Amino acid sequence: MYTAEILEAKQSQQNLEQAATYMVLALGESHPITMQFMQQSAERTKSVEQLEAKIAASTRAVKKGFLFNEGPFVKELDKALQGFGVHRQQYFGGAFVGNHVHAALKVSNINKLLTSILCAARANLPHKAEMVENETVKFLNVFTLFAKCHAIYDNNFIDETNVEKLGQCIKEFLSYFRTAFPGATIPIKMHMLEDHATEWVRLTHVGFGLLGEQGAESIHAKFNSLGRAYTAIPDRVERLKCIMKEHLVSIAPDMVAAIPPPKKRKKSLDDT
Questions:
Q1: Residue 260: enclosing H or E segment and its boundaries?
Q2: Per the confidence metrics, is the pTM higher than 0.70?
Q3: Alpha carbon separation from 13 to 10, 16, 34, 37 (Å, rounded)
Q4: DSSP secondary structure code for residue 194 in this structure
Q5: Which DSSP letter does residue 127 get?
Q6: DSSP string, 16-40
Q7: With the C-alpha atoms ordered 164, 170, 176, 182, is the resulting torsion angle positive or negative?
Q8: pLDDT given at position 93
Q9: Looking at residue 211, what DSSP letter applies?
Q10: Residue 235, helix vs strand vs coil
């Protein structure tokens, strides 16, 4: 690590400067021994400056490493993701769609992601490669534990046996997360997973895959389209009735066919 190296180099520089100063006072500046100590002191000062510049460059590399779409770590991660067909979306801060989550949580692909981080560290921060390798082991374990949870709760139907298994997997995942990353906060989605997921699945026996917002969003778009089609009807209630009837015809035509036709009005004497 650079910290011990720079401290040792600065201590050596200080000792040489003190020795050179003593030799100047004792033997004079032109004495060969004095000149030798002065040269060694100058060389040590130069090496300390080079080491400090290297540390500063390393610090900048660390800060730049995770810049979105720019840092070497993010670039390597994107390259690894694209290697197994996963792309970050333009919405929701670069989130993944459902199928991409499945792919990213395969054990082989988790290993590829973490290997890309190690390669980036060895190329850009060789002095921190060992530390990065230790951290990647933590991420390998936490991603693998989360993948076990995802494999269960993503099913359409979850029986009671798998409900219990899901609860145990969630407990193991959160327990390891807190141990491996003691300073990390618990995001709201992890809180929902820990405190509410098992209860919800036990109540409904339905996986989270059926709880997406895409269906509601598509219906919203459909109603907007129908609203534009009937915008000429001035009365709001009649306009809404027409929209609902049109929607019913489109989603349940058999139900509409079962509605009895209106009865024909009998002619009265006044009509004749």
A1: none
A2: no
A3: 5, 5, 15, 11
A4: I
A5: G
A6: HHHHHHHHHHHH-TTSHHHHHHHHH
A7: negative
A8: 59
A9: G
A10: coil
